[in-house]
Amino acid sequence: MIRSIRWRLVLAAGLAIALALALSGLGLSVLFERHVERVAAADLQARALALVAMVEPGRAAGPALRPPPEDPLYDQPFSGHYWQVMLGDEMRRSRSLWDYTLPTTEAAPAPGQSRVRVLPGPRGEDLLAVEQSLSVGQGARAVPLRILVAEDRSQLALAKQGFLGDFLPYLALLGAALVLASWVQITVGLRPLAQVGARVAGLVSGARPRIGLDLPTEVIPLATQIDRLLDARDEELGRARARAANLAHGFKTPLQALLGDAAQLRGRGEAEIARSIETIATEMRRHVDRELARARIQTQHPPAGAAPGPIAAKLIGVLRRTPKGAELDWRLDAPPGPLARIDSGDLTEAMGALMENAMRHARDSVRVSVGLDTGRVVIAIRDDGPGVPEPHLAALTRRGLSLDPSGEGQGIGLAVVSDIADAAQGELRLLNADPGFLAELRFDALP
């Protein structure tokens, strides 16, 4: 089944045009045939009246027939052109009839009248005939004159075939031109849908906030409904983030109190129970911190764009004031370039988590670089630490997984960074740099 609207419309238009042209051709063929028959009948009528000259009315014995005029058309046997004249009981026939007599079983028309008939010919063919009836003389001495002039209908069929042979190529050319015109019309008519598709793609990429109403009248209702759906989605996402944040904040205080109770139990010598409570409470706090971080991720479209270089410089300035950061050699390679398609706050949070991880595991230095790769902004954060065991690389962004030997990590930082990258339609890559560890963030560049 054809799924393209354009091809469906073209197919429907082609079928409609073919049907219309076929009916037109059939109608024109019938009209041409009737026209040819009328012309032929008029010619036969004229020939019938010319044969009246064979009648010699002034004789004392009554009217008689003279010898027929010479006409090669009627002298050749079975030529397809015939005449037959009957004056009273006297009959003359064209030589082309040979020994055949045209049937006259039907009553003759009234004197002075004529009619067109179809008669069988000498070879069984159909003949188009004109029968003319006249009366020679007056009163009781009037003698009926009946003239039949006929020609083979196959000659009319040949004329029709010649007409169709000349007409059909032009009909086909007209059909092709109409199909081409329909294609152009359909393409122009469907162009607004392509415009809507491009704007929807802009919504997906974050290039525009809404479809808008500066569109043709017919597609404005569709654009309006899509924009309303997006408004409703943003409102629902806002409410969902607020609910998640409220729920997470509601859990933080009871969890902190539970950890305090565990510390009291440990002071009373209940170390086993205290360790079990601390393990459960810590895991729950990881869940709460992750949901708080996810609730802060911005999802409005389009983002204003963020400059990774200044953000990295600011983060390095903050981390250098920490005891661990002050011991490291920080290197920043961020030439001026295009903005990344992500909210500035989200990028700050994502880079901050990655740079903090790099600081925690680095031995002597951390390098941050910003560049372009096939239209995407690439932010690379590399430390010279021990790296990560290869079996654990694929699971680094899993919630609650911490490979920090000091036990300071909560196992949610990389998971939150992955969520931020996904929300901005970006990408997070984690790999061993040999030596060290490399984290890359990739986002579309704003034009």
TrEMBL record:
Upper lineage: Bacteria, Pseudomonadati, Pseudomonadota, Alphaproteobacteria, Rhodobacterales
Keyword Ribonucleoprotein: no
Keyword list, A-Z: Kinase, Membrane, Phosphoprotein, Transferase, Transmembrane, Transmembrane helix
Domain of life: Bacteria
Biological process per Gene Ontology, one example term: phosphorelay signal transduction system
Protein name (record): histidine kinase
Gene3D superfamilies reported in the protein's UniProt record: Histidine kinase-like ATPase, C-terminal domain
Catalytic reactions of this protein: ATP + protein L-histidine = ADP + protein N-phospho-L-histidine
InterPro entries associated with the record: HATPase_C_sf (IPR036890), HATPase_dom (IPR003594), His_kinase_dom (IPR005467), Sig_transdc_His_kin-like_C (IPR004358), TCS_sensor_his_kinase (IPR050428)
Keyword hit for Kinase: yes
Species, as recorded: Paracoccus aminovorans
SUPFAM superfamilies to which the protein is assigned, alphabetical: ATPase domain of HSP90 chaperone/DNA topoisomerase II/histidine kinase
One annotated Gene Ontology cellular component of this protein: plasma membrane
Chief site of localization: membrane
Localization per record: Membrane
Residue ranges annotated for the Histidine kinase domain, each copy included: 246-447
N-terminal signal peptide: none
